[in-house]
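Figure 2 data, in text form.
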Amino acid sequence: MNMDSSPSTRTVASGSPIDQAEALRHLPPAARAAYHHFAASGEVQSLDPVILAILEDFIPRKADRPLGEYAGDTRLVDDLGFDSLAITEVVFFTEDLLAIRIANEEIIQVRTLDDLRGFVRRKVTERLAV
């Protein structure tokens, strides 16, 4: 599935339409700007603020500081309190926004903030290479 930086309606794997502009409005301004930078440049590392914003939106309990201030080895489940439902929500939103597919077998290997950043970068890079 191709993704461009223009707002569009597309159909996701579940068969339901997603309005990419609406999904982007769900993110804070800095994350939207980072997404648009990625869309224009293709620099996958510019997605880091987007990934953190998605996590902050679905985190089950309020973090004591912004997730960007946490070390990369911070564990999603043990340190930040993510449970299977919250991780599922993060996966679905990330899949829809970035037009990637994440298998259950893949996501269970992701344990830390750095794991997640690296994983999403790889998935997006693979999609762009197709």
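Caption note: The CA atoms of residues 55 and 90 lie 7 Å apart.
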